[in-house]
Specification:
Helix content is 46%, strand content 11%.
Protein backbone atom coordinates (compact mmCIF):
# COMPACT_ATOMS: atom_id res chain seq x y z
CA UNK A 1 0.00 0.00 0.00
CA UNK A 2 1.24 3.48 -0.77
CA UNK A 3 2.30 5.79 2.01
CA UNK A 4 -0.35 8.38 2.92
CA UNK A 5 1.39 11.19 1.03
CA UNK A 6 1.90 8.94 -2.00
CA UNK A 7 -1.71 7.78 -1.89
CA UNK A 8 -2.88 11.42 -2.07
CA UNK A 9 -0.73 11.97 -5.13
CA UNK A 10 -1.89 8.78 -6.88
CA UNK A 11 -5.59 9.21 -6.18
CA UNK A 12 -7.09 11.78 -8.55
CA UNK A 13 -9.24 14.39 -6.86
CA UNK A 14 -12.84 14.81 -7.91
CA UNK A 15 -13.16 17.78 -10.23
CA UNK A 16 -15.05 20.76 -8.89
CA UNK A 17 -17.52 20.45 -11.76
CA UNK A 18 -18.23 16.80 -10.89
CA UNK A 19 -18.47 17.68 -7.20
CA UNK A 20 -21.08 20.38 -7.89
CA UNK A 21 -22.93 18.07 -10.29
CA UNK A 22 -23.02 15.32 -7.65
CA UNK A 23 -24.40 17.69 -5.03
CA UNK A 24 -26.94 19.12 -7.45
CA UNK A 25 -28.07 15.60 -8.39
CA UNK A 26 -28.86 14.95 -4.75
CA UNK A 27 -31.20 17.94 -4.49
CA UNK A 28 -34.87 16.89 -4.23
CA UNK A 29 -36.69 17.31 -7.52
CA UNK A 30 -33.63 18.77 -9.22
CA UNK A 31 -34.14 22.12 -7.51
CA UNK A 32 -31.26 24.58 -7.42
CA UNK A 33 -29.64 24.94 -4.00
CA UNK A 34 -30.58 27.77 -1.68
CA UNK A 35 -27.48 29.93 -1.30
CA UNK A 36 -25.21 27.70 -3.38
CA UNK A 37 -22.43 25.37 -2.21
CA UNK A 38 -19.17 26.06 -0.41
CA UNK A 39 -16.02 24.80 -2.11
CA UNK A 40 -14.91 21.39 -0.86
CA UNK A 41 -11.79 20.80 1.20
CA UNK A 42 -9.66 23.13 3.30
CA UNK A 43 -8.85 26.63 2.09
CA UNK A 44 -5.48 27.22 0.42
CA UNK A 45 -2.51 27.82 2.67
CA UNK A 46 -2.12 31.43 3.82
CA UNK A 47 0.32 33.51 1.82
CA UNK A 48 3.22 35.25 3.48
CA UNK A 49 3.44 39.07 3.13
CA UNK A 50 6.11 38.83 0.39
CA UNK A 51 3.96 36.29 -1.47
CA UNK A 52 0.91 38.59 -1.26
CA UNK A 53 2.94 41.48 -2.67
CA UNK A 54 4.13 39.35 -5.57
CA UNK A 55 0.80 37.56 -6.17
CA UNK A 56 0.04 39.29 -9.47
CA UNK A 57 3.38 38.47 -11.05
CA UNK A 58 3.28 34.97 -9.61
CA UNK A 59 -0.10 34.40 -11.27
CA UNK A 60 1.14 35.71 -14.62
CA UNK A 61 4.27 33.53 -14.46
CA UNK A 62 2.22 30.47 -13.51
CA UNK A 63 -0.33 30.88 -16.31
CA UNK A 64 1.36 32.42 -19.35
CA UNK A 65 3.58 29.47 -20.47
CA UNK A 66 0.54 27.22 -20.90
CA UNK A 67 -1.77 29.49 -22.90
CA UNK A 68 -0.33 28.50 -26.27
CA UNK A 69 0.24 24.78 -25.62
CA UNK A 70 -1.71 22.88 -28.31
CA UNK A 71 -2.22 19.93 -25.93
CA UNK A 72 -4.98 20.98 -23.50
CA UNK A 73 -4.42 17.97 -21.20
CA UNK A 74 -0.73 18.73 -20.79
CA UNK A 75 -1.39 22.46 -20.43
CA UNK A 76 -4.12 21.94 -17.82
CA UNK A 77 -1.93 19.58 -15.77
CA UNK A 78 0.95 22.03 -15.89
CA UNK A 79 -0.96 25.17 -14.95
CA UNK A 80 -2.92 23.26 -12.31
CA UNK A 81 0.30 22.11 -10.64
CA UNK A 82 1.86 25.59 -10.77
CA UNK A 83 -1.22 27.27 -9.29
CA UNK A 84 -1.58 24.65 -6.56
CA UNK A 85 2.06 25.12 -5.57
CA UNK A 86 1.74 28.92 -5.54
CA UNK A 87 -1.11 29.00 -3.01
CA UNK A 88 -2.87 31.70 -5.04
CA UNK A 89 -6.57 32.37 -4.45
CA UNK A 90 -9.31 32.82 -7.01
CA UNK A 91 -9.13 36.61 -6.79
CA UNK A 92 -5.41 36.64 -7.61
CA UNK A 93 -6.13 34.77 -10.85
CA UNK A 94 -9.21 36.85 -11.55
CA UNK A 95 -7.23 40.09 -11.41
CA UNK A 96 -4.78 39.08 -14.13
CA UNK A 97 -6.68 36.83 -16.52
CA UNK A 98 -8.60 39.65 -18.24
CA UNK A 99 -5.35 41.29 -19.36
CA UNK A 100 -3.41 38.22 -20.44
CA UNK A 101 -2.38 38.21 -24.14
CA UNK A 102 -4.05 35.37 -26.02
CA UNK A 103 -1.84 34.67 -29.02
CA UNK A 104 -3.58 31.37 -29.79
CA UNK A 105 -7.28 31.63 -28.93
CA UNK A 106 -7.98 28.05 -29.98
CA UNK A 107 -5.38 26.68 -27.56
CA UNK A 108 -6.51 29.03 -24.77
CA UNK A 109 -10.15 28.03 -25.26
CA UNK A 110 -9.28 24.34 -25.14
CA UNK A 111 -7.31 24.94 -21.93
CA UNK A 112 -10.25 26.84 -20.42
CA UNK A 113 -12.65 24.00 -21.16
CA UNK A 114 -10.29 21.41 -19.76
CA UNK A 115 -9.89 23.38 -16.52
CA UNK A 116 -13.60 24.12 -16.02
CA UNK A 117 -14.61 20.50 -16.68
CA UNK A 118 -11.80 18.57 -14.97
CA UNK A 119 -10.03 21.05 -12.69
CA UNK A 120 -9.97 20.20 -8.98
CA UNK A 121 -8.24 23.34 -7.66
CA UNK A 122 -10.19 26.54 -7.22
CA UNK A 123 -7.49 28.80 -8.71
CA UNK A 124 -7.19 26.60 -11.80
CA UNK A 125 -10.97 26.53 -12.30
CA UNK A 126 -11.07 30.30 -11.77
CA UNK A 127 -8.57 30.60 -14.62
CA UNK A 128 -10.78 28.47 -16.86
CA UNK A 129 -13.87 30.55 -16.07
CA UNK A 130 -11.91 33.77 -16.59
CA UNK A 131 -10.70 32.64 -20.01
CA UNK A 132 -14.24 31.70 -21.01
CA UNK A 133 -15.26 35.28 -20.21
CA UNK A 134 -13.25 36.17 -23.31
CA UNK A 135 -13.57 33.01 -25.36
CA UNK A 136 -16.74 31.23 -24.20
CA UNK A 137 -19.33 29.83 -26.59
CA UNK A 138 -22.85 28.39 -26.15
CA UNK A 139 -21.52 24.87 -25.57
CA UNK A 140 -19.91 26.12 -22.33
CA UNK A 141 -23.23 27.19 -20.80
CA UNK A 142 -24.17 23.88 -19.08
CA UNK A 143 -20.78 23.66 -17.35
CA UNK A 144 -20.81 27.30 -16.23
CA UNK A 145 -24.35 26.84 -14.91
CA UNK A 146 -23.16 24.06 -12.61
CA UNK A 147 -19.91 25.75 -11.54
CA UNK A 148 -21.90 28.89 -10.74
CA UNK A 149 -23.60 26.98 -7.93
CA UNK A 150 -20.37 27.26 -5.95
CA UNK A 151 -20.55 30.45 -3.93
CA UNK A 152 -16.94 31.33 -4.84
CA UNK A 153 -17.69 31.08 -8.57
CA UNK A 154 -21.18 32.56 -8.78
CA UNK A 155 -20.16 36.11 -9.69
CA UNK A 156 -17.60 35.03 -12.30
CA UNK A 157 -19.80 32.33 -13.84
CA UNK A 158 -22.78 34.69 -14.05
CA UNK A 159 -20.61 37.34 -15.68
CA UNK A 160 -19.65 34.87 -18.42
CA UNK A 161 -23.20 33.56 -18.77
CA UNK A 162 -24.49 37.12 -19.17
CA UNK A 163 -22.76 37.21 -22.54
CA UNK A 164 -23.91 33.75 -23.58
CA UNK A 165 -27.32 33.03 -22.04
CA UNK A 166 -28.93 35.78 -19.95
CA UNK A 167 -31.86 33.71 -18.62
CA UNK A 168 -29.48 31.03 -17.34
CA UNK A 169 -27.21 33.66 -15.79
CA UNK A 170 -30.19 35.20 -14.04
CA UNK A 171 -31.46 31.85 -12.78
CA UNK A 172 -28.07 30.98 -11.23
CA UNK A 173 -27.86 34.43 -9.65
CA UNK A 174 -31.34 34.16 -8.15
CA UNK A 175 -30.72 30.66 -6.80
CA UNK A 176 -27.48 31.54 -5.03
CA UNK A 177 -27.86 35.20 -4.10
CA UNK A 178 -31.55 35.72 -3.19
CA UNK A 179 -32.51 34.65 0.32
CA UNK A 180 -36.18 35.68 0.40
CA UNK A 181 -38.28 32.47 0.46
CA UNK A 182 -41.06 34.22 -1.46
CA UNK A 183 -38.84 34.16 -4.57
CA UNK A 184 -38.09 30.45 -4.22
CA UNK A 185 -41.21 29.09 -6.01
CA UNK A 186 -40.27 31.14 -9.07
CA UNK A 187 -36.69 29.80 -9.03
CA UNK A 188 -37.93 26.20 -8.66
CA UNK A 189 -40.41 26.56 -11.53
CA UNK A 190 -37.77 28.06 -13.81
CA UNK A 191 -35.24 25.36 -12.91
CA UNK A 192 -37.87 22.71 -13.72
CA UNK A 193 -38.67 24.36 -17.05
CA UNK A 194 -42.33 24.75 -16.08
CA UNK A 195 -43.36 27.97 -17.86
CA UNK A 196 -46.93 27.93 -16.58
CA UNK A 197 -45.83 27.54 -12.98
CA UNK A 198 -43.17 30.21 -13.49
CA UNK A 199 -45.71 32.75 -14.72
CA UNK A 200 -47.99 31.96 -11.81
CA UNK A 201 -45.09 32.35 -9.39
CA UNK A 202 -44.05 35.61 -11.05
CA UNK A 203 -47.27 37.36 -10.09
CA UNK A 204 -46.91 36.28 -6.46
CA UNK A 205 -43.35 37.54 -5.97
CA UNK A 206 -43.45 40.51 -3.56
CA UNK A 207 -41.83 43.59 -5.07
CA UNK A 208 -41.33 45.60 -1.89
CA UNK A 209 -37.81 47.06 -1.52
CA UNK A 210 -37.13 44.70 1.39
CA UNK A 211 -37.99 41.61 -0.70
CA UNK A 212 -36.73 42.59 -4.15
CA UNK A 213 -33.88 45.00 -4.73
CA UNK A 214 -33.09 46.62 -8.10
CA UNK A 215 -30.66 43.88 -9.16
CA UNK A 216 -33.05 41.12 -8.12
CA UNK A 217 -35.83 42.77 -10.13
CA UNK A 218 -33.61 42.78 -13.21
CA UNK A 219 -32.60 39.16 -12.74
CA UNK A 220 -36.24 38.09 -12.34
CA UNK A 221 -37.13 39.87 -15.58
CA UNK A 222 -34.24 38.19 -17.39
CA UNK A 223 -34.92 34.73 -15.95
CA UNK A 224 -38.60 34.68 -16.95
CA UNK A 225 -37.85 36.31 -20.34
CA UNK A 226 -40.24 39.10 -19.39
CA UNK A 227 -39.96 40.95 -22.69
CA UNK A 228 -40.94 37.79 -24.57
CA UNK A 229 -43.86 37.17 -22.20
CA UNK A 230 -45.13 40.70 -22.84
CA UNK A 231 -44.75 40.32 -26.60
CA UNK A 232 -46.86 37.16 -26.76
CA UNK A 233 -50.44 38.13 -27.57
CA UNK A 234 -52.81 39.02 -24.73
CA UNK A 235 -51.12 39.57 -21.39
CA UNK A 236 -52.76 38.77 -18.09
CA UNK A 237 -53.32 42.03 -16.12
CA UNK A 238 -51.54 40.49 -13.14
CA UNK A 239 -48.44 39.81 -15.23
CA UNK A 240 -48.66 43.30 -16.77
CA UNK A 241 -48.84 44.95 -13.36
CA UNK A 242 -45.95 42.87 -12.06
CA UNK A 243 -43.86 43.79 -15.10
CA UNK A 244 -44.48 47.47 -14.38
CA UNK A 245 -43.46 46.99 -10.74
CA UNK A 246 -40.25 45.20 -11.72
CA UNK A 247 -39.33 47.99 -14.13
CA UNK A 248 -40.00 50.56 -11.42
CA UNK A 249 -37.80 48.66 -8.94
CA UNK A 250 -34.99 48.60 -11.51
CA UNK A 251 -34.98 52.40 -11.69
CA UNK A 252 -33.91 52.76 -8.05
CA UNK A 253 -30.49 54.36 -7.58
CA UNK A 254 -29.72 52.44 -4.40
CA UNK A 255 -26.90 50.66 -6.20
CA UNK A 256 -23.66 51.49 -7.98
CA UNK A 257 -25.44 51.65 -11.33
CA UNK A 258 -29.18 51.69 -11.99
CA UNK A 259 -30.28 48.15 -12.84
CA UNK A 260 -32.58 49.46 -15.59
CA UNK A 261 -29.51 50.41 -17.64
CA UNK A 262 -28.15 46.85 -17.37
CA UNK A 263 -31.41 45.28 -18.57
CA UNK A 264 -30.94 44.63 -22.30
CA UNK A 265 -34.69 44.31 -22.95
CA UNK A 266 -35.66 47.45 -21.03
CA UNK A 267 -36.91 49.40 -24.06
CA UNK A 268 -39.05 46.51 -25.28
CA UNK A 269 -40.44 45.89 -21.80
CA UNK A 270 -41.20 49.59 -21.29
CA UNK A 271 -42.99 49.84 -24.63
CA UNK A 272 -45.03 46.70 -23.98
CA UNK A 273 -46.08 47.83 -20.51
CA UNK A 274 -46.95 51.40 -21.43
CA UNK A 275 -48.82 50.47 -24.62
CA UNK A 276 -51.08 48.21 -22.50
CA UNK A 277 -51.23 50.46 -19.42
CA UNK A 278 -54.85 51.39 -20.07
CA UNK A 279 -55.77 47.72 -19.62
CA UNK A 280 -54.89 47.92 -15.94
CA UNK A 281 -57.78 48.76 -13.62
CA UNK A 282 -57.30 52.12 -11.88
CA UNK A 283 -55.98 51.51 -8.37
CA UNK A 284 -53.63 53.16 -5.94
CA UNK A 285 -50.81 50.71 -6.62
CA UNK A 286 -51.21 50.80 -10.40
CA UNK A 287 -51.39 54.59 -10.43
CA UNK A 288 -48.29 54.97 -8.24
CA UNK A 289 -46.34 52.43 -10.32
CA UNK A 290 -47.15 54.04 -13.67
CA UNK A 291 -46.40 57.50 -12.28
CA UNK A 292 -43.04 56.19 -11.04
CA UNK A 293 -42.21 54.94 -14.54
CA UNK A 294 -43.18 58.30 -16.00
CA UNK A 295 -41.01 60.18 -13.50
CA UNK A 296 -37.98 58.07 -14.36
CA UNK A 297 -38.57 58.37 -18.11
CA UNK A 298 -38.76 62.12 -17.64
CA UNK A 299 -35.68 62.80 -15.52
CA UNK A 300 -34.17 59.55 -14.26
CA UNK A 301 -31.85 56.82 -15.56
CA UNK A 302 -34.49 55.42 -17.93
CA UNK A 303 -34.03 58.51 -20.08
CA UNK A 304 -30.62 57.08 -21.13
CA UNK A 305 -31.98 53.87 -22.63
CA UNK A 306 -31.47 53.46 -26.42
CA UNK A 307 -34.81 54.91 -27.46
CA UNK A 308 -35.76 55.28 -31.08
CA UNK A 309 -36.24 58.96 -32.05
CA UNK A 310 -39.29 60.25 -30.20
CA UNK A 311 -39.88 56.91 -28.48
CA UNK A 312 -39.41 58.12 -24.92
CA UNK A 313 -41.62 61.14 -25.51
CA UNK A 314 -44.33 58.93 -27.03
CA UNK A 315 -44.37 56.74 -23.92
CA UNK A 316 -44.69 59.81 -21.71
CA UNK A 317 -47.60 61.03 -23.83
CA UNK A 318 -49.32 57.66 -23.40
CA UNK A 319 -48.76 57.59 -19.66
CA UNK A 320 -50.07 61.15 -19.35
CA UNK A 321 -53.20 60.18 -21.26
CA UNK A 322 -53.78 57.13 -19.04
CA UNK A 323 -53.06 58.76 -15.68
CA UNK A 324 -55.16 61.80 -16.46
CA UNK A 325 -58.02 59.76 -17.87
CA UNK A 326 -61.37 58.70 -16.35
CA UNK A 327 -61.04 56.62 -13.23
CA UNK A 328 -57.34 57.33 -12.73
CA UNK A 329 -57.63 60.94 -11.57
CA UNK A 330 -60.04 59.78 -8.88
CA UNK A 331 -57.20 57.87 -7.19
CA UNK A 332 -55.73 61.16 -5.97
CA UNK A 333 -59.06 61.94 -4.29
CA UNK A 334 -59.08 58.74 -2.26
CA UNK A 335 -58.90 58.85 1.52
CA UNK A 336 -57.41 56.20 3.75
CA UNK A 337 -56.82 55.58 7.43
CA UNK A 338 -53.72 53.54 6.61
CA UNK A 339 -50.62 55.78 6.93
CA UNK A 340 -48.74 54.04 4.10
CA UNK A 341 -51.65 54.39 1.69
CA UNK A 342 -52.21 57.99 2.74
CA UNK A 343 -48.56 58.82 1.98
CA UNK A 344 -48.87 57.31 -1.51
CA UNK A 345 -52.07 59.24 -2.23
CA UNK A 346 -50.48 62.51 -1.15
CA UNK A 347 -47.40 61.73 -3.26
CA UNK A 348 -49.58 61.16 -6.33
CA UNK A 349 -51.27 64.52 -5.76
CA UNK A 350 -47.90 66.30 -5.55
CA UNK A 351 -46.24 64.47 -8.44
CA UNK A 352 -48.96 63.82 -11.00
CA UNK A 353 -48.00 66.72 -13.31
CA UNK A 354 -44.22 66.72 -12.87
CA UNK A 355 -43.16 64.16 -15.54
CA UNK A 356 -45.26 65.65 -18.30
CA UNK A 357 -44.01 69.21 -18.63
CA UNK A 358 -40.88 71.04 -19.77
CA UNK A 359 -39.72 68.59 -22.39
CA UNK A 360 -39.20 68.56 -26.11
CA UNK A 361 -38.77 71.58 -28.33
CA UNK A 362 -40.07 74.11 -25.79
CA UNK A 363 -37.90 72.93 -22.90
CA UNK A 364 -35.92 75.67 -21.13
CA UNK A 365 -32.14 75.65 -21.36
CA UNK A 366 -31.93 74.87 -17.63
CA UNK A 367 -34.51 73.52 -15.25
CA UNK A 368 -33.93 72.34 -11.70
CA UNK A 369 -36.40 69.76 -10.42
CA UNK A 370 -36.71 67.85 -7.16
CA UNK A 371 -37.72 64.21 -7.57
CA UNK A 372 -39.23 62.09 -4.82
CA UNK A 373 -39.87 58.38 -5.35
CA UNK A 374 -43.08 56.54 -4.51
CA UNK A 375 -43.23 56.30 -0.68
CA UNK A 376 -43.72 52.54 -1.08
CA UNK A 377 -40.17 52.48 -2.50
CA UNK A 378 -38.57 55.17 -0.35
CA UNK A 379 -35.37 56.88 -1.32
CA UNK A 380 -33.76 60.27 -0.93
CA UNK A 381 -35.36 63.41 -2.32
CA UNK A 382 -32.90 64.38 -5.04
CA UNK A 383 -32.17 67.51 -7.04
CA UNK A 384 -32.15 66.82 -10.79
CA UNK A 385 -30.78 69.41 -13.23
CA UNK A 386 -32.25 69.18 -16.73
CA UNK A 387 -30.41 70.83 -19.62
CA UNK A 388 -32.43 71.36 -22.80
CA UNK A 389 -35.05 69.02 -21.33
CA UNK A 390 -32.61 66.15 -20.75
CA UNK A 391 -31.46 65.01 -17.30
CA UNK A 392 -27.79 65.68 -16.66
CA UNK A 393 -26.82 63.43 -13.76
CA UNK A 394 -27.58 59.90 -15.02
CA UNK A 395 -25.20 60.30 -17.96
CA UNK A 396 -22.61 62.59 -16.37
CA UNK A 397 -22.32 60.52 -13.18
CA UNK A 398 -24.69 57.57 -12.74
CA UNK A 399 -23.26 56.25 -9.45
CA UNK A 400 -25.91 57.74 -7.20
CA UNK A 401 -28.76 60.24 -6.97
CA UNK A 402 -28.47 64.01 -7.02
CA UNK A 403 -27.91 65.78 -3.73
CA UNK A 404 -30.81 66.74 -1.51
CA UNK A 405 -32.58 70.05 -2.21
CA UNK A 406 -31.71 71.22 1.30
CA UNK A 407 -28.05 70.90 0.37
CA UNK A 408 -28.20 72.43 -3.11
CA UNK A 409 -31.15 74.81 -3.05
CA UNK A 410 -31.78 75.89 0.53
CA UNK A 411 -28.07 76.59 0.92
CA UNK A 412 -27.92 78.81 -2.18
CA UNK A 413 -25.01 76.78 -3.53
CA UNK A 414 -26.28 76.97 -7.13
CA UNK A 415 -26.41 80.76 -7.14
CA UNK A 416 -23.85 82.26 -9.52
CA UNK A 417 -21.41 85.02 -8.60
CA UNK A 418 -18.29 86.43 -10.22
CA UNK A 419 -16.29 84.35 -7.77
CA UNK A 420 -16.09 80.72 -9.01
CA UNK A 421 -17.66 78.21 -6.64
CA UNK A 422 -17.23 74.44 -6.80
CA UNK A 423 -20.49 72.61 -6.06
CA UNK A 424 -21.09 68.93 -5.43
CA UNK A 425 -24.12 67.89 -7.48
CA UNK A 426 -24.22 64.18 -6.63
CA UNK A 427 -22.50 61.60 -4.48
CA UNK A 428 -21.96 57.89 -5.05
CA UNK A 429 -24.55 55.49 -3.65
CA UNK A 430 -21.98 54.14 -1.16
CA UNK A 431 -20.12 57.34 -0.17
CA UNK A 432 -17.84 59.86 -1.83
CA UNK A 433 -14.89 58.34 0.00
CA UNK A 434 -15.61 54.98 -1.62
CA UNK A 435 -16.64 55.70 -5.21
CA UNK A 436 -16.52 59.48 -5.61
CA UNK A 437 -18.84 62.34 -6.41
CA UNK A 438 -19.69 64.79 -9.19
CA UNK A 439 -18.53 68.39 -8.87
CA UNK A 440 -18.93 71.42 -11.12
CA UNK A 441 -17.64 74.98 -10.90
CA UNK A 442 -20.38 77.63 -11.18
CA UNK A 443 -19.39 81.16 -12.18
CA UNK A 444 -20.98 84.29 -13.57
CA UNK A 445 -19.21 85.71 -16.63
CA UNK A 446 -20.85 88.94 -17.72
CA UNK A 447 -24.33 88.21 -19.03
CA UNK A 448 -23.76 84.45 -18.84
CA UNK A 449 -23.44 81.77 -16.18
CA UNK A 450 -21.15 78.87 -16.93
CA UNK A 451 -20.90 75.36 -15.47
CA UNK A 452 -17.40 74.05 -16.16
CA UNK A 453 -14.32 72.31 -14.72
CA UNK A 454 -16.15 69.12 -13.94
CA UNK A 455 -14.70 66.65 -11.43
CA UNK A 456 -15.89 63.05 -11.38
CA UNK A 457 -14.38 59.61 -10.63
CA UNK A 458 -12.04 58.00 -13.12
CA UNK A 459 -14.38 54.99 -13.25
CA UNK A 460 -17.04 57.26 -14.78
CA UNK A 461 -14.68 59.16 -17.10
CA UNK A 462 -13.19 55.99 -18.57
CA UNK A 463 -14.32 55.60 -22.16
CA UNK A 464 -16.43 58.77 -22.12
CA UNK A 465 -15.72 62.21 -23.59
CA UNK A 466 -15.03 65.02 -21.18
CA UNK A 467 -18.10 66.96 -20.08
CA UNK A 468 -18.47 70.28 -21.88
CA UNK A 469 -18.90 73.70 -20.34
CA UNK A 470 -22.60 74.60 -20.22
CA UNK A 471 -23.50 78.27 -20.66
CA UNK A 472 -26.78 79.89 -19.64
CA UNK A 473 -28.24 83.34 -20.03
CA UNK A 474 -27.55 84.94 -16.64
CA UNK A 475 -31.01 86.48 -16.21
CA UNK A 476 -32.72 83.19 -17.11
CA UNK A 477 -30.36 81.30 -14.82
CA UNK A 478 -31.05 83.56 -11.84
CA UNK A 479 -34.78 83.29 -12.42
CA UNK A 480 -34.67 79.49 -12.58
CA UNK A 481 -32.57 79.13 -9.42
CA UNK A 482 -34.90 81.52 -7.59
CA UNK A 483 -37.92 79.52 -8.78
CA UNK A 484 -36.38 76.21 -7.72
CA UNK A 485 -35.40 77.57 -4.30
CA UNK A 486 -38.92 78.79 -3.62
CA UNK A 487 -40.74 75.76 -5.08
CA UNK A 488 -41.61 73.40 -2.23
CA UNK A 489 -44.44 71.64 -4.03
CA UNK A 490 -42.49 68.36 -3.89
CA UNK A 491 -42.28 68.37 -0.07
CA UNK A 492 -44.63 66.70 2.39
CA UNK A 493 -45.54 68.23 5.79
CA UNK A 494 -42.77 66.57 7.84
CA UNK A 495 -40.17 67.58 5.25
CA UNK A 496 -41.45 71.17 5.23
CA UNK A 497 -41.24 71.18 9.02
CA UNK A 498 -37.63 70.00 8.76
CA UNK A 499 -36.73 72.76 6.29
CA UNK A 500 -38.33 75.43 8.45
CA UNK A 501 -36.61 74.07 11.55
CA UNK A 502 -33.25 74.07 9.76
CA UNK A 503 -33.80 77.67 8.60
CA UNK A 504 -34.68 78.70 12.14
CA UNK A 505 -31.52 77.12 13.55
CA UNK A 506 -29.39 78.78 10.87
CA UNK A 507 -30.82 82.14 11.96
CA UNK A 508 -30.63 81.32 15.70
CA UNK A 509 -27.69 78.93 16.31
CA UNK A 510 -27.77 79.98 19.98
CA UNK A 511 -30.94 77.88 20.43
CA UNK A 512 -28.63 74.85 20.54
CA UNK A 513 -25.26 76.25 21.57
CA UNK A 514 -26.72 77.58 24.85
CA UNK A 515 -27.20 73.92 25.81
CA UNK A 516 -23.65 72.86 24.88
CA UNK A 517 -25.11 71.38 21.70
CA UNK A 518 -24.00 71.64 18.09
CA UNK A 519 -26.41 71.29 15.17
CA UNK A 520 -25.96 68.10 13.17
CA UNK A 521 -28.74 67.67 10.64
CA UNK A 522 -32.49 67.80 10.31
CA UNK A 523 -34.67 65.73 7.98
CA UNK A 524 -37.33 63.04 7.97
CA UNK A 525 -37.10 59.52 9.32
CA UNK A 526 -36.30 57.04 6.54
CA UNK A 527 -38.64 54.39 7.97
CA UNK A 528 -41.36 56.86 8.93
CA UNK A 529 -41.33 59.83 6.53
CA UNK A 530 -44.06 61.55 8.56
CA UNK A 531 -41.63 62.10 11.45
CA UNK A 532 -39.25 65.06 11.48
CA UNK A 533 -35.84 64.29 12.99
CA UNK A 534 -33.35 66.75 14.50
CA UNK A 535 -29.84 65.52 15.33
CA UNK A 536 -27.34 67.39 17.50
CA UNK A 537 -24.07 66.69 19.30
CA UNK A 538 -23.50 67.40 22.97
CA UNK A 539 -20.19 68.03 24.72
CA UNK A 540 -19.62 70.16 27.80
CA UNK A 541 -17.93 73.41 26.81
CA UNK A 542 -19.58 74.00 23.44
CA UNK A 543 -21.74 76.86 24.77
CA UNK A 544 -20.40 80.48 24.84
CA UNK A 545 -19.58 81.52 28.42
CA UNK A 546 -18.50 84.76 30.05
CA UNK A 547 -18.37 86.58 26.72
CA UNK A 548 -16.17 83.90 25.12
CA UNK A 549 -17.12 82.07 21.96
CA UNK A 550 -18.20 78.48 22.29
CA UNK A 551 -15.62 75.75 21.94
CA UNK A 552 -15.18 73.25 19.14
CA UNK A 553 -16.00 69.59 19.45
CA UNK A 554 -13.02 67.73 20.89
CA UNK A 555 -13.24 64.11 19.79
CA UNK A 556 -10.77 63.11 22.50
CA UNK A 557 -13.26 64.10 25.21
CA UNK A 558 -16.65 62.45 25.86
CA UNK A 559 -19.43 63.49 23.49
CA UNK A 560 -22.84 62.15 22.49
CA UNK A 561 -25.18 62.39 19.53
CA UNK A 562 -28.85 63.03 20.32
CA UNK A 563 -31.89 62.64 18.08
CA UNK A 564 -35.21 64.40 18.60
CA UNK A 565 -38.19 62.85 16.80
CA UNK A 566 -41.19 65.06 16.05
CA UNK A 567 -44.11 62.91 14.80
CA UNK A 568 -46.69 64.56 12.56
CA UNK A 569 -49.60 65.75 14.71
CA UNK A 570 -51.64 67.19 11.81
CA UNK A 571 -50.76 70.78 12.74
CA UNK A 572 -49.40 72.99 9.94
CA UNK A 573 -45.64 72.66 9.37
CA UNK A 574 -45.15 76.34 10.18
CA UNK A 575 -46.76 75.86 13.60
CA UNK A 576 -44.79 72.67 14.33
CA UNK A 577 -41.46 74.28 13.46
CA UNK A 578 -42.27 77.40 15.50
CA UNK A 579 -43.25 75.28 18.51
CA UNK A 580 -40.04 73.26 18.25
CA UNK A 581 -37.89 76.40 18.10
CA UNK A 582 -39.76 77.89 21.06
CA UNK A 583 -39.17 74.73 23.07
CA UNK A 584 -35.44 74.87 22.34
CA UNK A 585 -35.36 78.43 23.61
CA UNK A 586 -36.58 77.44 27.07
CA UNK A 587 -35.81 73.75 27.56
CA UNK A 588 -32.57 71.79 27.31
CA UNK A 589 -33.18 69.34 24.41
CA UNK A 590 -31.08 66.70 26.13
CA UNK A 591 -33.98 66.25 28.56
CA UNK A 592 -36.33 64.99 25.83
CA UNK A 593 -34.14 63.85 22.92
CA UNK A 594 -32.65 60.35 22.80
CA UNK A 595 -29.00 59.30 22.72
CA UNK A 596 -28.17 57.76 19.35
CA UNK A 597 -24.40 58.04 18.98
CA UNK A 598 -21.10 58.29 20.77
CA UNK A 599 -20.30 55.35 23.04
CA UNK A 600 -21.52 53.64 26.17
CA UNK A 601 -18.41 54.90 28.00
CA UNK A 602 -19.12 58.49 26.94
CA UNK A 603 -22.73 58.18 28.05
CA UNK A 604 -21.68 56.93 31.48
CA UNK A 605 -19.09 59.68 31.82
CA UNK A 606 -21.66 62.37 30.95
CA UNK A 607 -24.44 60.89 33.07
CA UNK A 608 -26.84 59.71 30.36
CA UNK A 609 -28.34 56.25 29.83
CA UNK A 610 -27.10 54.34 26.80
CA UNK A 611 -29.85 52.94 24.52
CA UNK A 612 -31.06 49.54 25.75
CA UNK A 613 -31.17 48.10 22.21
CA UNK A 614 -27.49 48.84 21.56
CA UNK A 615 -25.33 45.88 20.56
CA UNK A 616 -21.81 46.09 22.02
Amino acid sequence: MSAPDERGALTPRLSLYDDALRRYGAEPGGRLPDGGYPLPGPPPRPLSPPERREARQTAIDAITPFLTDPDPVRAADGVHRRLDESGLRNHHVRRVVAGLPLEDETAARALARRLTRTGSGSAAVALGVGLLARLGEPEDVPFLRILGLFQDFTVDAVRVLDGLDRPTAALVWLAVRVEDPAVRPLVDALAAGDDAAARAALTSVPTSPRAVGPETARRIAEAVRLADVLREGPVDPGVLAQAARLLSRMTSQRDYRPAILLYDEAVTAYESVVERAALLPPSLDHCATLLSLALDLHSGPSSLLPWRPGGREALLDTLESVLHGPGWTAVADLDSEDPAERRRIQWIRRTTRQPFGHRGVGAPRLRIEVAVRDPADPDVAETRPLIDGRPLLPKAFGLGPGNAPERLLDSGRLRATAEPREVQLAEAYCTEGCCGALYVTVQREGDQVVWRDWRRPSSVRRGQPELPAYRFDAADYDAEIARAESDHSWAWPARITARLLAAGLRDRPDLLTRWDARFGWVGTDYRDPDTTVLSFTYQPGLAPRDGLAGGRLDVDRPWLQFVWNLPDDDTPPEARAAAALARLETTDPKTFAQVRGGSREHAEALGFPWPADDTP
